[in-house]
Amino acid sequence: MSSRGSSSRITDEEINELVSKLQSLLPESRRRNIGRASASKLLKETCSYIKSLHRDVDDLSDRLSALMATMDANSPQADIIRSLLRS
């Protein structure tokens, strides 16, 4: 079933607006490299950025786990970290 002709079809104007919003979410340095890029290039750059964020989260999680493993579970520092993670 095609959505052509139906009221749920997205317009070029809506696509352009969504592309602009997506571009505004990328860090400034990445946006500078894209300039006024095509939607395809912007989506590729966004996927790359999301992958890098996932790698950063994994790295920070590993580092936090290693730090927590070296701490006394009842130390004030461990309590602070646990309270931050619950927030």
TrEMBL record:
Keywords: Growth regulation, Transcription, Transcription regulation. One of its GO terms (molecular function) is protein dimerization activity. Residues 1-53 form the BHLH domain. It comes from the Eukaryota. PROSITE patterns: BHLH. GO terms for biological process: regulation of DNA-templated transcription; regulation of growth. Belongs to the bHLH protein family. PANTHER family: TRANSCRIPTION FACTOR PRE, TRANSCRIPTION FACTOR PRE5. This is (wild Malaysian banana) hypothetical protein. The lineage of its organism: Eukaryota, Viridiplantae, Streptophyta, Embryophyta, Tracheophyta.
